[in-house]
Amino acid sequence: MATGSEAQIDTLFQAFQRGTTDLIEEKQLRGMITKSLAEGRPLRIKFGMDPSSPDLHLGHAVQLRKLRDLQDLGCQIVLIVGDATAMVGDPSGRNKLRPVLTREEVETNLETYVAQAGHVLDIEKTEVRRNSEWFDAMNFEELLRLTTRMTVAQMLERDTFQTRIAAEEPIGINEFLYPLMQGWDSVMVAADVELGGTDQLFNLLVGRRLQEQEDQRPQIVMTQPLINGLDGRKMSKSYDNSIGLTATPKDMTFRIMQVDDEVMPTWLLHLTRLDEATIAEVLGLHPREAKARLAKEVTTFYHGEEAAIEAAAAFDREVRDKVLPTDLPRVPWSEAWGAELPLANLLKEMGLCQSTSEARRALKQGGVKIDGTAQTDERAMVAPLEGAERLIQVGKKRAAHLLG
């Protein structure tokens, strides 16, 4: 029978292990956990986020939820907001030189980052640091000393750089600085553990190297996989395949229901806290039912169970049962439209079609309805009905109420 302290060690160690790809070194980690519990000193878990874009999505939540698990078990989360490193740009996973961001662009993005991370982490218990604290204070001589910590040959061991050299793609000198800067962050905050995506392994190992050179205990390196977005590519807002942490319950649910069947095991493991046996049960369900469970688990975490249930009911009505949503736009008749307006023009003005030519095509195909009655006359004129409203539909998914 395990003692209380042994049970604590096992619980924390298992939390580190769940969904982890790399854990360097496991034996060292267990020793750290044992010592920290004995001393009553929480482990310092470092995680860096560069504000290179204004929003966070579920791809970021893979690491954030891991951090929250560890935070709930008493670890000290150290969130590095990389306002200095963001200007350099992380070369991880890139096949071309990243444009350098200005300080102003970084500051704009930074405004939302911590607040959005707070949708997962308990920010009041999180140590939030900007790495400009130490990099802005570093003079040129100190920067030169930092660059002597690694050789060009060591930098070129990185697979990303090897791929780009083979493809004859340029590599900027500034990109060599990035791993050193991220590693130096670990020295400055005395990290016990650093968490990152699998594409961050090289950078995280640089942190271990620099800590050893500074006579610090080298940090544990822990990575988790990158999750794909709705189209099978790496989740990214630029691909329009992501689900934002601030998405509404309805949008979050509807978009999760679009994911490919192949990603379900990964999403269930990393975006929920269902145990292995329950995940296996969910994966044994019909794919639609499995996605519904996934959507409920994820949406409940961010918005609560009641909102998740309402969003699931909306999906069933609008998609499964093809019932129009209850929150359709309400468009008042504009004085600029005059006493009447050609139906094709009205559809464009209401935002139901992008152009009058698209509206005419929809009319020809019988895809336009007014109060449930199909409209096919391209020359039809529509006038407002004072004190009344009409339901205007284009196809199965676009509709709005026209107010007289």
Written account of the structure:
It is a single chain. The chain has 404 residues and is of the alpha/beta class. The chain is 47% helix and 13% strand. The strands form three sheets. Strands 1-6-5-2-3-4 form a six-stranded mixed sheet, with helices on both faces. Strand 12 (389-394) and strand 13 (398-403) form a beta hairpin. The termini are far apart. The model has no long low-confidence stretch (mean pLDDT 89).
Helix content: 40-55%
The helix count comes to: 18
Major β-sheet annotation: 6 strands, mixed
Q: Strands across the major sheet, in which order?
A: 1-6-5-2-3-4
Quick summary:
The chain has 404 residues and is of the alpha/beta class. Helix content is 47%, strand content 13%.
Chart the SSEs and their pairings.
Elements lengths: L3 H14 L4 E3 L1 H14 L4 E6 L8 H15 L3 E6 L3 H4 L14 H15 L9 E4 L1 H4 L4 H8 L4 H4 L3 H8 L6 H17 L3 E5 L3 H13 L6 E5 L24 H8 L7 H8 L4 H8 L3 H17 L1 H16 L9 E3 L8 E2 H7 L6 H9 L3 E3 L2 E3 L5 E2 L6 E6 L3 E6 L1
Parallel strand pairs: 2-3, 2-5, 3-4, 5-6, 7-13
Antiparallel strand pairs: 1-6, 8-11, 9-10, 9-12, 12-13
Features:
404 residues; alpha/beta; six-stranded mixed sheet; 18 helices; 13 strands; elongated
